[in-house]
Specification:
By secondary structure, the chain is mainly beta. It has one domain: Thiol Ester Dehydrase, Chain A, CATH 3.10.129. Helix content is 13%, strand content 39%. Strands 1-2-4-5-6-3 form a 6-stranded antiparallel β-sheet, covered by helices on one side. A hairpin with a 2-residue loop joins β4 and β5. The protein is globular and about 55 Å long.
Length: 123
């Protein structure tokens, strides 16, 4: 009789949400970046950093959740990556709705790590 195999649990892709604070037109999420995120696999061995695509993906995912948006954004622009985030970082993701656009900023303490703008189709 073959041995039972243990199911493999994929590494997480999202940060841990530690808290949410309401903003006048949005939300500020307090996040913790676990060391076991899939994004760190190979990016870069010995000195892992959070890829920019993960930061944009988090902005999209949490904007959908908070603002009740569906689908993918039709425009992602004004994206700037200014500083890196590492495993164990405590971050804040601000999402602010300005008309049909979502403006996001990712901070670690007073340091702006990245920012950008998302535009979804009108619901």
């Amino acid at each position: 009789m073959p041995a039972a195999s243990t199911p493999i649990t994929p590494a997480p892709r999202l940060p841990r949400v530690l808290g949410r604070d309401a903003l006048p037109e949005g939300v500020c999420l307090r996040l913790e970046v676990p060391a076991d995120l899939a994004w760190f696999d190979g990016h870069f061995p010995g000195a892992p950093i959070l890829p920019g695509v993960a930061q944009v993906g988090w902005a999209v995912t949490f904007a959908r959740e908070h603002f009740g948006l569906g689908g993918d954004p039709k425009i992602i622009d004004r994206v700037k990556f200014l500083h890196t985030a590492r495993p164990g970082s405590q971050l804040e993701l601000e999402l602010v709705r300005k008309g049909g656009q979502i403006v996001w900023q990712l901070h670690e303490a007073a340091t702006l790590l990245s920012r950008g703008r998302l535009e979804f189709d009108a619901a």
